[in-house]
TrEMBL record:
<dbReference type="InterPro" id="IPR035090">
    <property type="entry name" value="Pyridoxal_P_attach_site"/>
</dbReference>
<dbReference type="InterPro" id="IPR011834">
    <property type="entry name" value="Agluc_phsphrylas"/>
</dbReference>
<keyword id="KW-0328">Glycosyltransferase</keyword>
<keyword id="KW-0119">Carbohydrate metabolism</keyword>
<keyword id="KW-0021">Allosteric enzyme</keyword>
<feature type="domain" description="DUF3417">
    <location>
        <begin position="13"/>
        <end position="123"/>
    </location>
</feature>
<dbReference type="InterPro" id="IPR024517">
    <property type="entry name" value="Glycogen_phosphorylase_DUF3417"/>
</dbReference>
<protein>
    <recommendedName>
        <fullName>glycogen phosphorylase</fullName>
        <ecNumber>2.4.1.1</ecNumber>
    </recommendedName>
</protein>
<keyword id="KW-0663">Pyridoxal phosphate</keyword>
<comment type="similarity">
    <text>Belongs to the glycogen phosphorylase family.</text>
</comment>
<keyword id="KW-0808">Transferase</keyword>
<comment type="function">
    <text>Phosphorylase is an important allosteric enzyme in carbohydrate metabolism. Enzymes from different sources differ in their regulatory mechanisms and in their natural substrates. However, all known phosphorylases share catalytic and structural properties.</text>
</comment>
<dbReference type="Pfam" id="PF11897">
    <property type="entry name" value="DUF3417"/>
</dbReference>
<dbReference type="InterPro" id="IPR000811">
    <property type="entry name" value="Glyco_trans_35"/>
</dbReference>
<dbReference type="InterPro" id="IPR052182">
    <property type="entry name" value="Glycogen/Maltodextrin_Phosph"/>
</dbReference>
<dbReference type="Pfam" id="PF00343">
    <property type="entry name" value="Phosphorylase"/>
</dbReference>
Length: 867
């Protein structure tokens, strides 16, 4: 008979072991070696503790074993030390508190919203890079003492578990997760009842959700769960699985995340005394509705809609993570309209006002669609991409929201992602660094480690990975229907002395999982080379609805099933955090070959680098920013050409083969008299010591604090109700008056010229007459924009020179502005003049998307050839 309900009966911890409960419930154990080792000592086999989590371990250990440990003085001493270390970690001042003590103006708290969080394999609430990044953000914030509150959803089926059919087709499984068996605790009201949030749905229905809390070091992570008795069956399934269901299902998930998430934060702060967030960070557009909930909150204080929008924008940061339009959620306007207004959420607020925040009302947009990223940008005064290149791509992608501005001036900056070293670096590497003076803050210690020790450790880690791969591969083949007698060959899969290349990530088409298969004969030659062979470990999941991605997986699997090469190339199903933590340290080279520039950042290569693995990658994402020949190899690309994708793939695959054959493999196998590949080891050393500090999540979070959170908190504090009204009124007045703002005349007091040329270092005086209509000079900024020009007179590498009022209005009501223009560059040179809105509370002059430029008939011509 099959049980209708499943639960765990936990033993009662003896008093001396009570601290184990607190250690198990704080996810710091997932990146703290001493805590993990303590729990592994509970289970002498070690396997159960290593593969699961302490909460499950404590639920499975026998009462007899606990009684034995309660008398073990050595274990109790270790327990006391680890518990004291956790308490010091939670209570002691860290970087953030040091900044406050030095007078820095920082937010009292930051709320960080994301649709997924990859904190640990024991809490499977992630699908890929976005969630892993969010988890690393929380952990680094905890290490730095940043008062962050994470907000997400609790998916009862997580993302999905992946297996393979006999013919290599991806199959999905959705095991039910019981929150009571996860490292979570329910958030409760003062009377002990579970805390709830409620959303209004059309037709008088409601969506209820309870709040679970995961403790990520110092950071609380709040997860909303709709599987509660108050909901009808349809509403109970809202949080059933990550990125599942149709449009309305996704919309309800995102309403619960954004609107319900803000309400959950308010409840948590009320119940615990945690500081109320001054800054709200929207990690991708999925959480964008949080802005609407905060508008609703402010409207309850008497602020009108426009003033509330200004107050919300001031304290909001929006991060976009994808340069792929298909990665952005877009909903039909009628679906949005049905869920808001008097019959849904935000009653009393006109639905049209809500729709205006997300509609694609710009050239090239689809005016009937509500775009979550567009709403995120319109409701955030500060926005960023996740690498320097991605920031540039995002500025072009969303330039329609700021008409009249070149893409370079679109107000989207970039903060390059980072990864949490204690989570991803093998303990053996930390141990080797520590023996030579390395600390969590010092990565340059690798410079003093002897070549022999580096190389021996690399081989040890490779050997550990080979063992792990064989275990997982055997399990995969048994799932595919193989009998044990068929699997003897697996003991010969991979070789701990062969150059090992790793490739593991999600499987959308732009990441090109199968580019390596473009010329199969050539790949076979590389795999089976008699003196310089390579071996490849591949893993990745395709989205359940992406059959094209599944076909790519099947193509790779079928190739790796070939008896001629199956000892040299393997595909491991069910890629996740636990597998990744074994792959990164054990690989020599990390391969990444996306279609440039569609990789926003690509943090898997960062994790590999921290483990001494060299990158072999297209210059995309973070690699475009920090590549140096000391750290690996850049795969040449043909992204600037007009060729079709098939031809492009052929060229780039050939470039990949040539790099491996002519540069990567020879360097790995080029051994000196001591038997060591000296040049390879030096690249490993430089990768760890020089590249390592750049790719750390601590660096990333500090940048967020200093460049985005702190300015957002100051803007939030500056915008009280009266100031928000004043700013909203000013923007409305400027927008109404802007059609009559114009550059009427430009004249130049030119330096001495010869044949239309001017001398380098000369000054050009400008006099400009501006029509401002109903505006005043204090409402605008007038600039000269100058730089090199091309054949079409387009200005590049522009410089901006402010022009000052030179008197009152003339008889025609125009205002005179004047100022100097320094001619500091040689070659073809040009300038123009523009008028921008100006207000002390604007984050950038492009914020309103308004600019007035001269017409071709304005002025006396502006082209100069500099000598």
């Amino acid at each position: 008979m099959k049980a209708i309900r499943r639960f765990t009966v936990r033993p009662v911890l003896p008093d001396p072991l009570q601290p184990l409960s607190g250690l198990a419930r704080n996810l710091r154990w997932s990146w703290h070696t001493e805590t993990r080792e303590l729990f592994q000592a509970i289970d002498p086999g070690g396997r159960r503790a290593a593969d699961s989590d302490p909460v499950r371990l404590l639920g499975a250990v026998s009462a007899g074993r606990l009684a034995e440990l309660a008398q073990d003085q050595q274990f109790l001493h270790r327990l006391a030390e680890v518990s004291a270390a956790l308490q010091e970690y939670l209570d002691g001042p860290r970087w953030y508190q040091e900044q406050l003590a030095q007078g820095a103006e920082l937010p009292a708290a930051v709320a960080y919203f994301s649709p997924e969080f990859g904190v640990t394999a024991a809490l499977p609430q992630y699908s890929g890079g976005l969630g892993i990044l969010a988890g690393d953000h929380l952990k680094a914030a905890s290490d730095l003492g940043v008062p962050l509150v994470g907000v997400g959803l609790l998916y009862r089926h997580g993302y999905f578990r992946q297996s393979l059919s006999r013919d290599g087709w991806q199959q999905e499984h959705y095991p039910l997760l019981d929150p009571n068996e996860l490292p979570l605790t329910p958030v409760r009201e003062a009377d002990g009842t579970p805390s709830r949030v409620v959303l209004a749905l059309p037709g008088g229905r409601s969506l209820h959700a309870c709040i679970w809390q995961a403790q990520v070091g110092r950071v609380p992570l709040l997860l909303l769960d709709s599987d509660v008795e108050e909901n009808a069956p349809g509403e109970r399934d809202v949080t059933d699985r990550l990125y599942g269901g149709g449009s309305e299902h996704r919309l309800l998930q995102e309403m619960l995340l954004g609107i319900g998430g803000v309400r959950a934060v308010r409840s948590y702060c009320r119940l615990t005394g945690h500081a109320a967030p001054e800054v709200f960070h929207t990690n991708e557009g999925h959480a964008g509705f949080l802005g609407l909930e905060r508008i609703r909150e402010l409207s309850g204080t008497g602020l009108d809609f426009d003033s509330s929008v200004e107050a919300v924008r001031a304290g909001t940061v929006f991060t976009t993570h994808t340069p792929v339009p298909a990665g952005i959620d877009r909903f039909d306007r009628e679906l949005i309209a049905r869920h808001f207004g008097d019959d849904g959420e935000l009653p009393g607020v006109g639905v049209e006002r809500i729709l205006q925040l997300g509609m694609e009302t710009y050239p090239g947009g689809e005016p009937t669609l509500f775009n979550m990223a567009v709403m995120g940008l319109r409701l955030a005064q500060r926005a960023n991409g996740v690498s320097t290149l991605h920031g540039a791509v995002s500025r072009k992608m969303f330039a329609g929201l700021w008409p009249g501005f070149d893409a370079a001036e679109v107000p989207i900056t970039s903060v390059t992602n980072g990864v949490h070293a204690p989570t991803w670096v093998a303990p053996e590497i930390f141990g080797l660094r520590a023996r030579y003076g390395g600390t969590p803050g010092r990565w340059d210690a690798a410079a003093g480690i002897p070549d022999r020790e580096i190389w021996d450790l690399r081989r040890t880690l490779r050997e550990q990975m080979v063992t792990e791969v064989r275990t997982r591969l055997a399990a995969s083949w048994r799932t595919r229907g193989a009998e044990p007698a068929e699997l003897g060959w697996i003991e010969g899969v991979l070789d701990p002395d062969v150059l090992t290349i790793g490739f593991a990530r999600r499987v959308p088409s732009y990441k090109r999982l199968t580019l390596m298969l473009r010329d199969r004969d050539r790949l076979m030659e590389l795999l089976l080379h008699p003196t310089r062979p390579i071996q490849i470990v591949v893993a990745g999941k395709a989205h359940p609805a992406d059959d094209s991605g599944k076909r790519l997986v099947q193509e790779l699997v079928r190739f790796s099933d070939d008896p001629r090469v199956r000892h040299r190339i393997v595909f491991l199903p069910d890629y996740g955090m636990a597998m990744a933590q074994k792959l990164y340290p054990g690989c020599d080279v990390w391969l990444n070959n996306p279609l440039r520039p569609l990789e926003a950042c690509g943090t898997s290569g960062m994790k590999a680098a921290l483990n001494g693995c060299l990158n072999l990658s297209v210059l995309d994402g973070w690699w475009d920013e920090w590549f140096e020949p000391d750290f690996g190899w850049a795969i040449p690309t043909a992204d600037g050409s007009a060729m079709d994708e098939d031809r492009r793939d052929e060229l780039e695959a050939n470039a990949l083969y040539e790099l491996i054959e002519e540069r990567v493999a020879p360097r790995f196998y080029d051994r000196g008299d001591d038997g060591l590949p000296g040049r390879w080891v030096e690249m490993v050393r430089r990768t760890v010591s020089t590249l390592g500090p750049k790719v750390l999540a601590g660096r990333m979070v500090r940048e967020y604090v200093e460049r985005l959170y702190a300015p957002a908190a100051l803007a939030h504090r500056s915008l009280d109700a009266a100031t928000a009204r004043e700013l909203a009124d000013w923007k409305a007045r400027v927008r109404a008056a802007w059609p009559r703002v114009a550059v009427d005349h430009v004249e130049a007091v030119a330096p001495s010229t010869v044949g239309g040329s001017a001398e380098l270092g000369a000054m050009l005086g400008l006099r400009v007459r501006i029509a401002l209509g109903a505006l005043e000079p204090d409402d605008v900024e007038v600039q000269a924009v100058a730089g090199r020009v091309d054949a079409a007179d387009s200005i590049s590498d522009a410089q901006f020179f402010p022009l000052k009022p030179g008197g009152g209005q003339d008889l025609d009501g125009r205002w005179l502005y004047e100022g100097p223009l320094a001619l500091d560059r040689t070659g073809p040179y040009g300038y123009t003049v523009r008028v921008l809105p100006a207000h002390p509370l604007l984050a950038t002059s492009a914020e309103l998307g308004l600019v007035a430029l001269p017409t071709e008939a304005t002025g006396d011509g502006a082209g100069l050839l500099m000598r």
